[in-house]
């Protein structure tokens, strides 16, 4: 069999295989693209490897994509270190990957940085820094960040307690289906 040259057709074939739930077909089309250095293909291939629980292969593909500045791959490397998937759990490593992704505007990474600072995992606990990261992610529509930011205002963590602002953030998260935000709204008497 000859090696496929990466072309837009390969992307279309991979997308079609993905839509049909054909992971092997998608992998077949993505592998040549990933091997040729395509960061998006490397990241998607890594996600397929996590589905099969081959975390070493996933980490290798994520690292190749992350080295090229792929923010989603950087975010997922952070998750690997938080969850300890195939590596020892390491919040400092996770924070480093989240910081790289967050610097490029990756909302999920910003939300996780807020969580790390809120809980003091891999960093000195700092509610003000946590809130700043959560605000960035929440402004981009991240429901987890919106819920957490609502809790900051509800309980007065690094801000003056403000139930109206808490409700606003909970409502935004609830509008995206966040059940914890709906519960918080009920507890605040509106929801």
What does this structure look like?
The protein has helices at residues 8-19, 23-35, 39-51, 55-67, 71-83, 91-103, 107-119, 127-139, 143-155, 163-175, 179-187. The protein is mostly helical. It folds into 2 domains: 10-83, Tetratricopeptide repeat domain (Serine Threonine Protein Phosphatase 5, Tetratricopeptide repeat); 105-190, Alpha Horseshoe (Serine Threonine Protein Phosphatase 5, Tetratricopeptide repeat). The longest helix is centred in the N-terminal third of the chain and has 13 residues, at 23-35. The model is unreliable at 1-19 (pLDDT under 50).
Indicate the mean pLDDT: 85
CATH architecture descriptor text of the largest domain:
Alpha Horseshoe
Total domains: 2
User: What radius of gyration results from the CA coordinates?
Assistant: 19 Å
Task: Give helix and strand order, one letter per element, not per position.
Answer: HHHHHHHHHHH
Identify the CATH homologous superfamily of the largest domain: Tetratricopeptide repeat domain
Helix content bin: over 70%
Q: Could you please say which CATH topology of the largest domain applies here? A: Serine Threonine Protein Phosphatase 5, Tetratricopeptide repeat
Structural class, by secondary structure, is mainly alpha
Amount of beta strand: under 5%
Task: Report the total helices.
Answer: 11
Largest sheet: none
Give the C-level CATH assignment of the largest domain.
Mainly Alpha
**CA distance, first residue to last residue:** 60 Å
